[in-house]
Amino acid sequence: MKKTIALLSLTFLVVSAVVLSSAYKVGDTITDFKLKNIDDKLVSLSDYKEAKGYIIVFTCNHCPYAKAYEDRIIDLQNKYGKIYPVIAINPNDAVKYPDDSFENMKKRAKEKKFPFVYLHDESQSVAQLFGATKTPHVYLIQKEGVKNVIKYIGAIDNNYQDAKAATEFYVVDAIAALEAGKDISIKETKAIGCGIKWKE
Amino acid sequence: MKIFICWALLMGLIFFQGDVEVIKWAALEEYMDKKEDKIKVINFWATWCKPCMDELPYFEQIHEEYKDKNIEVLLVSLDQASMKDKVKASLKKNNVTAKAVLLDEVDFNKWINLVDTTWSGSIPATLIISKNNTSKTFYERQFTKQQLEELIHSLKP
Description:
The complex is a heterodimer of chains A (200) and B (157).
Chain A: H1 2-20, E1 35-37, E2 42-43, E3 53-58, H2 64-80, E4 86-90, H3 102-112, E5 117-120, H4 125-130, E6 134-135, E7 137-144, E8 147-154, H5 170-180, E9 193-195
Parallel strand pairs in A: 3-4, 4-5
Antiparallel strand pairs in A: 1-2, 1-5, 3-7, 6-9, 7-8
Chain B: H1 2-15, E1 21-23, H2 25-33, E2 39-45, H3 50-66, E3 71-77, H4 84-93, E4 99-103, H5 112-115, E5 122-123, E6 125-129, E7 136-139, H6 145-154
Parallel strand pairs in B: 1-4, 2-3, 3-4
Antiparallel strand pairs in B: 2-6, 6-7
């Protein structure tokens, strides 16, 4: 009996791994979504008629890595917002992390004067669709005609502790390459982050 | 008497638990690659990570139960090196005696894939290396007590 349970658990683990790998990859076209912003208005990618693309960042209030990158996300919006607006999305279950509730998102955005939209993925469907696993987790998107194509997935840079000590600026470099019509040299990076808290 | 004090000090050093060595990736890689006659259970965690803290006691239980049965638990903290004291305090609070290190490597992209190519980077995460390094299994997830016990039992140490 114990063996059967063990086998079943293992099967479950393997199946979960397979489900996770069905996430969006670089080169994939993403589906647009509609999520509530901290000003209570619904936001979709298609609202940004002038944009050449988007910097979609799954982030949240409570995670120390997300906090460490807040100022850098603000900088990205200030620098590239007109052509590549930052779309910040908090997908965390507020029951497990009350810090990440919609009310607290509003508070945090006000405290930090977020110059970008901060959307609440309450049903977690957008994070699931993307296959986002952690915060912060960046997806750089470029508009190609009617399609929104993923060009880069990963971290913002290579030093979460100290922005000044970073030596590789993945998102900035990827945007520069897109703007220059060149191939992006690093299309995907990995970083430690806070696992997205899924609803039970 | 002197001999006794020396012996007591020595035993104290040997059994002194709760210290956390700050290591670099090269040291962890060497540990992972070294072929040894034991199963290595390597858990990546951090003090700020609630699900990690939830499962920490289960890893300690596995350590207690299997330390003499060829299973070695290694807890790898991904906290900032400057948080070493907090790491030590939280291990102490949880009565953890399993071996613990703090991996001081912020350039994550350089080493995450070397742990496992399927790891997206969220924690908790656990790598299990079989005896003599013949196979590796990686779990990017949180375990319940029962799930971890069943998994370890299925390894048949």
